[in-house]
Amino acid sequence: MSGQRNRREQALTGSVVVIGNFDGVHPGHQQVLAAAKRAEPGVPLVVLTFWPHPASVVRPDGGPKLLTNLEDRVALLRAAGADEVRVIDFTRELSQQTPAEFVESHILPLAPRRVVVGENFRFGHRAAGDVAALTSLGEGRFAVTGLPLVHVGDEETCSSGVRAALESGDVVHAAELLGRPFRFRGIVRHGDKRGRELGFPTANLPVPNEYACPADGVYAGWVTRMDGRDAHGNPLPAGERTPAWPAAISVGSNPTFDGHDRRVESFVLDRDDLELYDAPIAVDFCSRIRGQVRFDGIEALVAQMDADVEATRQALAEARTAG
């Protein structure tokens, strides 16, 4: 693998390089890539991104909740115009590199004509490098462009803003900042099967500690199977995609039954034939229905779930009309 990578690096005779974490690949990130394309048309656009998040390495207990996994980040960057995405394994050793060492080891091998970053870009040990430092290090070797942050209304578009919206359960605002609905992905696991017993079978995804997820509550959204198979697990014809199914989505620990582990539980509307255990699915959040509530009994819980389903139908119908 390293030999193949080295041959690719040697084959580059010129590139425009974009560097960043790009968690979520929101419109601000996308505009950085678009500006790089415009600045150096006709040369490969190479994106350098880091995994895991540098903050989680420098401060193991203080890293941010991630908005996307690495697979989705790479796919989104390619969709935004990247010809190649190179993932830098961010280690404790890498965090000790000076800005000059980082340029020598990770930027110069790409034969850059220009490096494009956001104006708040920092790199090197203790974040000592900024756009000015990068410009100085690139003098005579490559040009540097630092771009201002993109705004949605009066608010800067940034990954931390998306996380804050999710933490408050405001998935509508999170979608505004992302430029698309927030998506949570995972492998469907066996749950307690209480939903099936109550007439509301759900596809259950655990919530890993390192990933962002909306605040506990009930939401309207969509579920999509991601492995190229249909509702029953049969392979789809080439080029065909599984449709997104409307769903009422519960996020939380199921306090009525004294649960502890956070899960995303999706009840797909009007379908009782889905076979999704061990399948990868994506859950896209449209709007919040209500917060999480602990009910005194099964009867009250079922009545509320019926109301949640109807509220979900209305919310999704309104979203389709607005869209």
TrEMBL record:
Superkingdom as given in the UniProt entry: Bacteria
Keywords: ATP-binding, FAD, Flavoprotein, FMN, Kinase, Multifunctional enzyme, Nucleotide-binding, Nucleotidyltransferase, Transferase
Catalysed reaction equations from the record: riboflavin + ATP = FMN + ADP + H(+); FMN + ATP + H(+) = FAD + diphosphate
Keyword Electron transport part of the UniProt annotation: no
A GO BP annotation: riboflavin biosynthetic process
Pathway the protein acts in: Cofactor biosynthesis; FMN biosynthesis; FMN from riboflavin (ATP route): step 1/1; Cofactor biosynthesis; FAD biosynthesis; FAD from FMN: step 1/1
Entry GO MF terms: ATP binding; FMN adenylyltransferase activity; riboflavin kinase activity
SUPFAM superfamilies: Nucleotidylyl transferase, Riboflavin kinase-like
InterPro entries found in the cross-reference section: Cyt_trans-like, FAD_synthase, Riboflavin_kinase, Riboflavin_kinase_bac, Riboflavin_kinase_bac/euk, Riboflavin_kinase_dom_sf, Rossmann-like_a/b/a_fold
Domain Riboflavin kinase: 177-317
Enzyme class of the recorded protein, top EC level: transferase
A Pfam family of this chain: FAD_syn
EC numbers, comma separated: 2.7.1.26, 2.7.7.2
Tagged with keyword Transferase: yes
Stated role: Catalyzes the phosphorylation of riboflavin to FMN followed by the adenylation of FMN to FAD.
Family: Belongs to the ribF family.
NCBIfam families given in the database record: cyt_tran_rel (TIGR00125), PRK05627.1-3 (NF004160), ribF (TIGR00083)
Identification of the protein by name: Riboflavin biosynthesis protein
